[in-house]
Design goal:
globular; 8 helices; homodimer; alpha+beta; 2 domains; Glutaredoxin; Glutathione S-transferase Yfyf (Class Pi), Chain A, domain 2; 223 residues
């Protein structure tokens, strides 16, 4: 059985979990706080980041969320998530990078720092200016999702793809941490509501990260 | 003809240029300073980053260096760079992520900020503490390359791969900006020396970024 080293609010682990569930690949959750820098974890992944996916029986260790997703896309035929022509696949990967890098850097990373790390590790109060800036940038990203959904059924085209999983993973963490104001983003909200009711998404929405509580709408599939 | 929007010290554009050259795909260089945030460029790529690769005749725009590399890996058979079993390919992509994200974040990005942006844009002096920290972290990355090359001919295995191109691209920018001390890194230096003499690498080594001059060893294939 695959063992996924992760913590509940890691957006990249969430992306991998969504992909594994959609493809029907069973896995166990192993908790890892990468900020603790455990030697055993750093030996598995010198980059010091989650997720890491390991199958001890077969001696395989997979590192980096995009490398993990490409691995299962290549080895499991069910529910293709990087599909279509080379140009379609490039569009999917462009959007994965946009959410993994820009949305994460603009929104998820500062929210995680202010609302999770400062609470659990540094015992500090969040900086309201940083939170406001992250929420402002979140609006820009939601507007871009509105724009995409105006033109396409799913973010990268006619079918659900890894772009949708990457976006939903980042958004779910930002939403958990109270970083999203959905007012005026009807298209993005409708797209995300479809996601929240998928079987692959339900386990994520029911998990909690220690003392940090999400807003009431977070796990409500009708909100 | 493909048009590559880039600036001379963009490590991600360098990775794409190395891949295109190794695969024999002709392209033109178009200069883009992403920090200027030109509307025309942001329309091409809302992420606001280089490289962007466009073929106006065919109406194709490719964005994000990893998406671009995967596109040419899928469409051009010559010189495969993400090759082997699914596990081999996962190892190549793990290392690409390590250099694109960790090496870039630890070394290339702070060096670019202190030595390029502060000089060309902000007209400030570099912060020597930031430079020292980046150079310290560069040593850790070079030790990891030493370790890999102790066990393998190329970074990800028996043949040259996108992992080598990603690493060489980051290293070449850090080296240009004086961020690397090669003392004690014989394996990494020997691996990089092989790269410097490849036809795909020569054009990069001969380019200069405005007033910023590299150290004398930078373009010397015997240094």
């Amino acid at each position: 059985m695959w063992q996924l080293y992760q913590f509940p609010l890691c957006p990249f682990s969430r992306k991998v979990r969504l992909l594994l569930s959609e493809k029907g690949v069973p896995y166990e959750l192993w908790r890892e706080n990468p900020w603790e820098g455990r030697d055993e974890f750093l030996n598995r992944n010198p980059a010091g980041r989650t997720p890491v996916l390991q199958d001890p029986a077969r001696g395989i260790t997979l590192v980096d969320s995009r490398a993990i997703c490409e691995y299962f896309e290549e080895t499991v035929d069910r529910s293709p998530m990087i599909n279509g022509t080379a140009a379609n696949r490039a569009e999917i990967r462009r959007l994965v990078a946009l959410f993994d890098e820009n949305f994460f850097g603009d929104v998820t990373a500062p929210m995680l720092h202010e609302r999770m790390k400062k609470r659990l590790i540094y015992r500090q109060s969040p900086d309201s200016r940083v939170l406001r800036e992250a929420m402002k940038l979140a609006h820009e990203h939601l507007y871009y999702i509105d724009h995409l959904i105006d033109h396409r059924p799913w973010l990268a085209g006619p079918t659900m793809s890894l772009a949708d999983l990457a976006a939903a993973a980042q958004i779910s963490v930002a939403d958990y941490l109270g970083g999203l104001d959905w007012t005026g983003h009807d298209q993005a909200r409708d797209w995300y509501a479809v996601f929240k009711s998928r079987p692959s998404f339900r386990p994520l929405l029911s998990e909690r990260m220690e003392v940090i509580q999400p807003p009431s709408h977070y796990a409500d599939v009708n909100a």
